[in-house]
Amino acid sequence: MGQPEASASPSSSDVTNELERILGSDEFQASARNRSFLRYVTEQTLAGHEDSIKAYSIACNVFGRPHTFDPRVDPIVRVEAGNLRRALERYYLTAGASDPLRIEIPKGAYVPAFRPAARSANRAYEETADHGVPRVAVLPFALLSDYPSQSHFANGLSAEIAVALGAHPGLVVTCRYAALDLESHSSLAKMRELLNARFVLEGIVRRSLDRIRITVQLADLQTERQIWGKTFDRELTAGSLFEVEDEIIRRVVEAVASPYSGAVPSAFKKENRRHSPKQLSAYEAVLYQHQHNQQTLPETYAVAKSALERAVRIEPEYADAWAALGELRCDAYTLGYGDDRENLHESIRCARTALDLDPTTQQAWWVIGLASLALRDGSCTVRAAEALLAPPTTAATTAWAGWLLALIGEWERGLDILLPQLELQPGYPAWLHHAEFLYHYQHRDYEAALESSKKFDMPSIFWDPLDRASVLGQLGRSAEAKAAIDEMLRLQPKVADDPLRFLNCFIFQDELVDHVLEGLKKAGLGD
Questions:
Q1: Is 78 within 8 Å of 360 (Cβ atoms)?
Q2: For the structural domain made of 121-257, what CATH number should be given?
Q3: Are 201 and 161 in contact (CB under 8 A)?
Q4: Is 199 exposed, middle or buried (0-12, 13-18, 19+ CB in 10 A)?
């Protein structure tokens, strides 16, 4: 296999020319202040002032924030950096596809990187400094229509999908296809030869006056197999085009990249079953944590913990691994694998490390919210939830935010955010229904609470029978309630000795804790 050819670093004049080319392009869809953001960090870097490019200096010099600016309180730089990255990604997928060099803002940093556009084209995919994160190429969608002048819609849709996938944690989107003149009907073997990616996404758009059909498929270039595909049929009205486009983009991204059921993570999970924790890449170790999130077994916890501890030791700059390890540290206490509350504080420290490495690591905010909830720190839990709702968002991160807000007491708002996201990610962890259960339970609508508890349906985690036992106790269904208590204690015997230690982790209001404990006692806890 050939190796990528070395390229000389771009000159200052080359970078300046590229900057002006970007800022002068109509396809660079960035706000005025993000254009100033790009100019500021680029010119500071060219002047040799990289060390001064920090969130504080950007906030004061670009966004006009006062000298009292605190990036921990005001996330403007982190949010706008994400917007700028997406604007650059879209530009290089469209008007800038043939530009001789790239200006990029790497995730987790504000100092731009300058690199030549040309790369070797004779590898199926590369193992680079991406920590084993899979690469996806998005081909321009083909248009089959009586309106060939609307080819811009097909090209624009594929470009928007590429940008949305690139913003998703756990994926790298390569845009080299734009310079390869690779036809969408090319064989997988040819794609494997030319593309710097493991996976390729392609599509066909068929449009009439009032209807649109979009067929999208994802292929694994390593196995030469299609691993996902779907056809979307939608009616069009004068004002619905953008709404339809946004919906399809959202569904494609979740189907491809969702950590719970996405086609790309699922392909790696199947491969992981043949590997020991010591053989896993850092990315694969993170996938093991997501697998534990869905199954919540002591054995999945042990595998994920071993793999992630190794990952942060071998690749300490991989933010996602620190965030995933933080969630496991939290699980250690809340699920009873260990009784030291210091696990919760260690969980937050891991999450803070992840955010220091990459401020866009949304799972880190989830970990902070989860641990803060267990520590009974309501204000920190709410701050974490609000951070999860800031771009870039996914169905998973939005669902986490809704779950936290509901449990902290913003019931209606939280559930309005949470429940619609569950439809977008078929493999979501069923414990997310705990919020819906508590909402009905606290209103003493026990029949509705029982229906919500059935959706929990995770026989490996003691919270499943715990919720059922408490509501069955309140309903006076003694035999079923006692069976649920026995199931709960089989999964976690420690609940019998100190039920408040566990209830306080995921039920914030003291009166609601007492209410659930009342139901458990009616079910037979303590008999």
A1: yes
A2: 3.40.50.10610
A3: yes
A4: buried
| pLDDT (tens digit per residue) in 200-228 | 998 999 887 788 899 999 999 888 889 99
Per-residue pLDDT reduced to its tens digit, 41-92: 999 999 988 888 988 999 999 999 998 988 877 888 888 888 898 888 888 8
Task: Tell me the pLDDT tens digit for each residue of 413-432.
Answer: 999 999 999 887 777 889 99
The string over 479-490, giving b where at least 16 C-beta atoms fall within 10 Å of a residue's C-beta and e elsewhere, is: eebbbbbebbbe
Structure tokens at 184: 């969408």
Which residue, chain included where needed, has tokens 């996404």?
201
Q: What pLDDT digit, counting tens, does each position of 236-293 carry? A: 776 677 788 888 988 999 899 888 888 998 888 777 666 666 667 788 888 888 888 8
Distance CA 321, CA 364 (A): 10
CATH entry, 269-382, from 1.10.8.60, 1.20.1050.10, 2.40.128.50, 1.25.40.10: 1.25.40.10
What is the DSSP secondary structure assignment for residue 209, as one 8-state letter? S
Q: What are phi and psi of 220, to 5 degrees?
A: -95, 110
Write down the pTM of the prediction: 0.71
What DSSP character marks residue 255? H
The alpha carbon dihedral of 265, 269, 272, 274 has a sign of negative
- C-alpha 370/C-alpha 433 separation (Å) is 15
The pLDDT, as a whole number, for residue 459 is: 85
Give, for 217, the enclosing helix (H) or strand (E).
strand 211-220
HEC string of 132-192? Answer: CCCEEEECCCEEEECCHHHHHHHHHHHHHHHHHHHCCCCCEEECHHHHCCCCCCCCHHHHH
Return the bridge partners of 114, or none. Answer: 103
Please state the domain extents for the chain.
Answer: 1-119, 121-257, 269-382
> How many CB atoms within 10 Å of residue 17?
15
Residue 113's H or E segment, with its range, is strand 113-116
